[in-house]
Amino acid sequence: MPTAPTVTVSQLKEDLILCLSGEWRTFCLPEIKHKLSALKLPQESKVVIDLSSVDFLDTASAYLLKKFLKKLKRLKISYKIKEGSPTIMATFHMVNEFTPSPEPRTEQTSRFSLIFLLNFLGKMALEPLKTLLEALSFLGEVTIGMIKILIHPRRLRFITLVDLIHKVGASALPIVGLISFLIGVVLVYQGADQLRRFGAEIFTINLLAVSALRELGILLTAIVVAGRSGSAYTAQLGFMKLNQEIDALHVLGIDPIEVLVVPRILALLIVLPLLTFFADIMALIGGGIATYFLIGVGPDDFAKHLLLSIGEWTFWTGIIKAPVFAFFIGLVACFEGLRVSGGAESVGKHTTQSVVEGIFLVIIFDAAFSILFSVLGI
Fold first, then answer.
1. What is the DSSP string of 75-112?
2. Taken in order 126, 127, 130, 131, is the CA torsion positive or negative?
3. Which of 200, 226, 172 is nearest to 305 (CA)?
4. Residue 296 pLDDT more than 60?
5. Could you give all domains of the chain from N- to C-terminal order, each with its CATH number?
6. Per-residue model confidence as pLDDT tens digits over 87-144
7. Which sign does the torsion angle of CA 250, 252, 257, 260 carry?
8. Does the first or last residue of the chain, that is N or C, have fewer Cβ atoms within 10 Å of its Cβ?
9. Which segments constitute the STAS domain (predicted)?
10. How many H-runs (helices) and E-runs (strands) does the chain carry?
């Protein structure tokens, strides 16, 4: 059994001898603290602290002894150390000579000061630039990953791609079809109400065809995919990042871009044009039904007028946009997912950013395509 720590006080001529003995261990700290604080030493006396009888001294007990020596200095009591075994003295000197570095002083800046304002504006300016550079680097990595798969198609995980196509495409058919159908109905009702004033209700079919096929079909489908599949991509990759599954792939020598990112983007590239075509058909069906009840145009007349109103590029201008929108929706979703760090709050933050940035890019590129098609005359 360990020997209990003891403190014995004796007088030798003008000196007070404090003889420490026993084993000074962490679990005895309350007892050690009590014995040291109970010592009543006269001011300006001379004390000899004898460590020769100490059998064991750990760092916690040595720290209490260091605090006791500081107390003696405050009371102007001079002391000398009678050394014990080399092990005991090594521990004592290590603790006694240790001086923790002071915490750096941080100046409190007022939230309304000029320095705070400049600091805030600097961060607001540099943060988007930093994100843009990271996104460009990520775009390069994805491009390299796609080139590798084009050169070596066997590197593509076909089963994963088919599963993603099912989740992104087939599972999205109901919501995309319902939204497109209702948009077709709304376009006919709103268009017919305005054109009736000029006696041109029949041109509602032209309005429906051009609006659905050129713009609304692809735009609404891309927004639904960005909110549905883009957020799912971000959340999946984010939790994989938190669970250190991405790090495990690096350790195994597997490129996460090639395994996780490229199949997801390829799935969107395949699915979004098909979903756009389905959305166009559902919008026309919804518009045709609304036209029958509102204007009285039968299915045969509707089909004939629809064929006359569709130009050479009316359908393809919408479909051409789909792969571009798909690529950037998948790119943003995977990029934000791999930026997740910390915890669940970060997953929510980057998922929101993914949806917002994806929809923003879809609208930006849609406007750019509109200007391009207008310049080309198509």
1. TT-EEEEE---HHHHHHHHHHHH--PPPPPP-PPPPTT
2. negative
3. 200
4. yes
5. 6-97 (3.30.750.24), 142-376 (no CATH)
6. 888 888 888 777 665 555 555 555 557 787 888 888 888 888 888 898 899 999 999 9
7. negative
8. N
9. 5-90
10. 15, 4
Q: Would you give the DSSP letter of residue 206?
A: H
Which amino acid makes up residue 332?
V
Could you give the CA distance from residue 373 to residue 370 in angstroms, rounded to a whole number? 5
Question: Is residue 212 a contact partner of residue 280, using CB atoms and an 8 Å limit?
Answer: yes
Question: Which pair of tokens denotes residue 188?
Answer: 């006919």
Mean pLDDT of 163-178: 92
**Contact predicate 321/217, CB 8 Å:** no
pLDDT of residue 108: 53
8 A C-beta contact, residue 235 and residue 292: no
Let me know: does 50 contact 18? Beta carbons within 8 Å: yes
What's the pLDDT score for residue 179? 94
Are the C-beta atoms of residues 84 and 54 closer than 8 Å to each other? yes
Give the amino acid at 261.
Answer: V
Find out whether 44 and 10 touch, Cβ atoms under 8 Å.
no
CA distance 208 to 181: 12
User: Closest by alpha carbon to 362, among 178, 167, 217, 256?
Assistant: 217
pLDDT per residue as tens digits for the range 248-278: 988 888 889 999 999 999 999 999 999 999 9
Q: In what order do the strands lie in the sheet with 78-82?
A: 6-12, 15-24, 46-57, 78-82
Asked if 35 and 22 touch (Cβ cutoff 8 Å), the reply is: no
**In contact, 222 and 272? CB cutoff 8 Å:** yes
Residue 244: what pLDDT? 87
pLDDT digits (tens, 9 = 90+) for 312-359: 888 899 899 999 999 999 999 999 999 988 888 889 999 999 999 999
